[in-house]
Design a protein that fits this description.
The protein is mainly alpha-helical. It has helices spanning 4-18, 25-36, 60-75, 80-109, 198-219, and strands at residues 132-135, 139-142, 146-149, 156-159. The strands form two sheets. Strands 1-2 form a two-stranded antiparallel ribbon. Strands 3-4 form a two-stranded antiparallel sheet. A hairpin with a 6-residue loop joins strand 3 and strand 4 (156-159).
């Protein structure tokens, strides 16, 4: 699984690029909390099969949150959130949504069984897996979405990495390190990953580097502060 350290590293990169003048320790603390909270669905596996990578790892709930935020902040004559929190935290809320989608859900989308993208509207895990390339022999090739036509019926089928459902998919995590349906007498080993691949270590390290660089920029003459 992609560790919280890697999620946080990517979140720091997004924060540096999107927060602008609102970049400070309080905003960073909120964004880091947002990027870690989805992992809490691991604890719900005891009451709901396949809860991990489902309840906190879909695109439906953040889309609903974005719609509500846009309606309140942009469409209403008087914004309840803006009056209570001000422009600063409206901006942080938008960045928080982007951090949740891109620094957490999307990273897990490309790993193992993927995520339950359209839950609760549709119960189906999807994994973003494939490649795009230009070949001198085959031209443009992409395998992320598989388009097939039945030669007998002419019916077209589209496979975008669809997998199982909450009833059939279990993604191992430190809370439930193996599928509860597996009857194994061996001692349970709980693994808390930090970086299980080179690119993940690189991403986490780059996020920490950007955090340190921004702090040094803020301390430089003419730089901003918290």
């Amino acid at each position: 699984m992609v560790s919280s350290v890697v999620h946080a590293g990517f979140a720091l990169l997004l924060a540096a690029g999107l927060l602008g003048d609102y970049y400070d320790r309080r905003a960073l603390a909120v964004l880091l909390a947002i990027v870690v909270i989805p992992e809490a669905d691991s604890f719900l596996g005891f009451v709901m099969s396949g809860a991990h990578r489902t309840i906190g790892h879909n695109l439906v709930l953040p889309a609903a949150g974005a719609a509500l935020l846009h309606y309140d902040a942009r469409l209403r004559e008087r914004s309840a959130l803006r009056e209570r929190l001000g422009d600063r935290w409206i901006a942080v809320a938008w960045v928080g949504l982007f951090v949740h989608v891109f620094a957490h859900v999307s990273l897990d989308w490309v790993h193992l069984e993927g995520v339950n993208v359209f839950w609760p509207l549709r119960d189906r895990f999807y994994a973003l897996d494939g490649e795009i390339l230009l070949s001198t022999a085959d031209g443009f090739v992409q395998t992320f979405v598989d388009l097939r036509t039945d030669p007998e019926t002419g019916r077209r089928a589209v496979d975008a990495g669809g997998g199982g459902t909450t009833e059939t998919v279990h993604v191992n995590n430190p809370v439930e390190p193996r599928d509860p349906a597996d009857e194994i007498e061996e001692p349970v080993e709980r693994i808390f990953p930090v970086a299980s691949a080179g690119w993940r270590l690189y991403l986490a390290g780059t996020g920490l580097f950007v955090l340190a660089a921004r702090r040094l920029q803020d301390r430089a003459p003419g730089g901003g502060g918290d």
